[in-house]
Amino acid sequence: MASGAINLGSNPSPAAIHCLIMKQDPNKKDIAGFLAMALDLEDRMSGSVYGDYLEKDMWPVSLKEESFETIKKLLMTLIDGTEKHKKEFLKLRNKL
Description:
Shape: elongated
Order of helices and strands: HHH
Mean pLDDT: 77
Low-confidence stretches: none
Helix content: 55-70%
Number of domains: 1
Distance between the termini: 11 Å
Number of strands: 0
């Protein structure tokens, strides 16, 4: 960690990230805001949008198990991609 940098922990809220960056350097306002929004969006996509559909009871009763397993596999691909995006946004945040 760079000299003078503050450690926010492993998973701070987007609002905490934004507030801390604003206190350190008001000129980084736009970048901090975009990163906070991106991290929030990634969290919502991973959990609420994709994650809910990993449960069989979210699907019609008539859905065959084989089809459900295919759906889960595809959703996991999306969730894994979302987690990779989140890591990249966190790397950018750490460079601010």
